[in-house]
Specification:
- The chain is α+β, with helices and mostly antiparallel strands.
- The chain has 10 helices and 29 strands.
- A 7-stranded antiparallel β-sheet has the order 7-6-3-4-5-9-8. A 6-stranded antiparallel barrel has the order 10-11-12-15-14-13.
- About 6% of the residues have low confidence.
C-alpha cells in the first residue's frame, strides 16, 4: 500500500514541478479539486475488463468407468460427481464481434464458461481457441453495447513506465492496482512454453489471471498471467503476456482455431561477450545460431551455424527467449526478414517458416490421464522420448494443448523414455507438467 502511495505522489510531484513537460508517452494526469487522479482513466477502461466464471469437469468425468451409472451404483458412488467452479478475468478486445482474451489456464478443462460484465450482465461464452504455449485463450460472447480496450504497442514499453492491473482477485469483484514495469523479456520461469513476460509490481493475485495490464493512455499492453509469491499471494512480482504476442495468437485462433506454428530448423543461444569475441561479431546483443539443420528452411534461406541474428522484421533481437517468443507466434508459410552478422559482415535474409513435420506413425498406445491422444516411443538424435501420433479434437489431451508430432521428453523435468514411463510419471500426485518438443521449441504444458 505504501509503495503505491509513494508512486502516486511521485507522479504528482513531477506534474507540479515548474516547467515540467509531459511527453506524448506519458499524458498529463487530470485533476479533481486540484489533486491529480487516475479515476477518469479507470472509469474509461474498466468496463472492458470482465469476470470469467468456469465450470470445470471433475476428474471422474475423464474416466469412462466412472461415467457409467451402473458402475457407480455397484460400488456405491454418487450418481453424479461434483463439478468445480473457478473464476478468472478477461478483456474485451473487439466489441463488434464480442471477442474476449483470457488465459488458457483459466478455461482449461471447462465444460461451461460465463462472462460477467462490469454492469453485471452475464453471457455464456464460446471458446474460439486456446494456446497452452503462450497461455492465451480467446472467447466469444453474443452481446451488444460492449466496451473494448485498444491494443497498445508492448514493444515500445520501457522499464519504469506506469501501468494499471485490472482483474478479479480472489473473486472479490473488479479491482484496480497500480505500479510500474519492473522488467521486460522475463523468461526461464517455466510457466509457459514461449516466455517473454512483462514483469510488474502492480498487485496481481489469484483471480487476476486473464485481466488487463494497461498504460496511462488506456491501452492494453499485457494480459496478466502469473505471480511469484509464497502461498500464491502477491509480493510485488507479477507477470503479463505482452499485448503484441497476445494479438498475434488471437489472429491465428480466429483464423484456424489454434496456433499453427512454423519451424526454421535451428538451435539458438544467447550471445555472450565471450561468444561474440570467438565469432568475431562487433555487437554485444543478439542471438547466435548453435545449429542449422541440413535441408531446413533456415539452411535453404542461407543461414549458417555461427550466424548472429540481430534483428527480425525490424525488431532488435536481444535474447534467445525473445527470438523464440517471436518465432513461436509466426505461422507456417509466413516469411520473415532477418538481419544477421557473419563475422563482421552484415547480411539481410528472407526466411520462410516451414511446416512442423507431422508424424508418419499411426496407431499407438493410450494413457487415461491424457485421454484422446495416442503415443509411441521414439528415438531422435540418440535421445529417447514419446511421440504423440494422434490427438482427437475436444478431448482432454487436445484441451491441454498436445498436438500430433509433439515429442514428450519428460514430466516435471524428469526424462521419460517410453509410453510406460510417461504413464507412470502421470500417475504421481500433485502438479504435473509435460516437457514437450514441438518443432524447434521446448514447451511446458501443465496437465494437472
Amino acid at each position: 500500500m505504501r509503495s503505491s502511495i509513494l508512486k502516486f505522489l511521485l507522479v504528482c510531484a513531477f506534474a507540479a514541478l515548474p516547467g515540467a513537460v509531459w511527453s506524448d508517452a506519458i499524458p498529463a494526469l487530470p485533476t479533481r479539486d486540484g489533486v491529480p487522479t487516475l479515476a477518469p482513466l479507470v472509469e474509461k477502461v474498466t468496463p472492458a475488463v470482465v469476470n470469467v466464471s468456469v465450470l470445470q469437469r471433475s476428474p471422474d468425468e475423464q474416466n469412462p468407468l466412472l461415467r457409467d451409472p451402473f458402475f457407480r451404483r455397484f460400488f456405491g458412488l454418487p450418481e453424479s460427481s461434483q463439478q468445480q467452479i473457478a473464476a478468472g478475468s478477461g478483456v474485451v478486445v473487439d466489441a463488434e464481434h464480442g471477442y474476449v482474451l483470457t488465459n488458457h489456464h483459466v478455461i482449461q478443462d471447462a465444460s461451461e464458461v460465463v462472462v460477467t460484465l462490469k454492469d453485471n450482465r452475464r453471457f455464456p461464452a464460446r471458446l474460439v481457441g486456446s494456446d497452452a504455449g503462450t497461455d492465451i485463450a480467446l472467447l466469444k460472447i453474443d452481446a451488444k453495447g460492449l466496451t473494448e480496450l485498444p491494443f497498445g504497442d508492448s514493444d515500445a514499453l520501457q522499464v519504469g513506465d506506469f501501468v494499471l492491473a485490472i482483474g478479479n482477485p480472489f473473486g472479490l469483484g473488479q479491482t484496480v492496482t497500480s505500479g510500474i514495469v519492473s522488467a521486460l523479456g522475463r523468461s526461464g520461469l517455466n510457466i509457459e512454453g514461449y516466455e517473454n513476460f512483462i514483469q510488474t509490481d502492480a498487485s496481481i493475485n489469484p483471480g487476476n489471471s486473464g485481466g488487463a495490464l494497461v498504460n496511462l493512455r488506456g491501452e492494453l499492453i499485457g494480459i496478466n498471467t502469473a505471480i511469484i509469491g509464497p502461498a500464491g499471494g502477491n509480493v510485488g512480482i507479477g507477470f503479463a503476456v505482452p499485448a503484441n504476442m497476445a494479438r498475434a495468437v488471437m489472429r491465428q485462433l480466429i483464423r484456424f482455431g489454434e496456433v499453427r506454428r512454423g519451424r526454421l530448423g535451428i538451435t539458438m543461444q544467447d550471445l555472450t561477450p565471450g561468444l561474440a569475441k570467438s565469432l568475431g561479431v562487433p555487437v554485444r546483443e543478439g542471438v547466435a545460431l548453435a545449429e542449422v539443420q541440413p535441408g531446413s528452411p533456415a539452411a535453404t534461406a542461407g543461414l549458417r551455424k555461427g550466424d548472429v541474428v540481430v534483428e527480425i522484421n525490424g525488431k532488435p533481437m536481444r535474447s534467445a527467449a525473445e527470438m523464440r517468443a517471436l518465432l513461436g507466434v509466426t505461422p507456417a508459410g509466413e516469411s520473415i526478414e532477418m538481419r544477421v552478422l557473419r563475422g563482421a559482415e552484415e547480411r539481410s535474409l528472407r526466411v520462410r517458416m516451414g511446416e512442423i513435420e507431422a508424424s508418419r506413425s499411426t496407431g499407438g498406445e493410450t494413457i487415461p490421464a491424457l485421454a484422446g491422444a495416442t503415443f509411441v516411443g521414439v528415438t531422435r538424435d540418440g535421445e529417447k522420448g514419446v511421440l504423440v501420433t494422434g490427438v482427437q479434437a475436444e478431448t482432454r489431451a487436445f484441451q491441454y494443448g498436445l498436438r500430433p508430432g509433439d515429442v514428450v521428453l519428460g514430466v516435471n523435468r524428469r526424462r521419460v523414455d517410453s509410453v510406460a514411463d510417461l504413464a507412470r510419471a502421470l500417475g504421481t500426485s500433485g502438479e504435473v507438467s509435460l516437457n514437450v518438443l514441438r518443432g524447434d521449441f521446448l514447451l511446458t504444458i501443465a496437465v494437472r
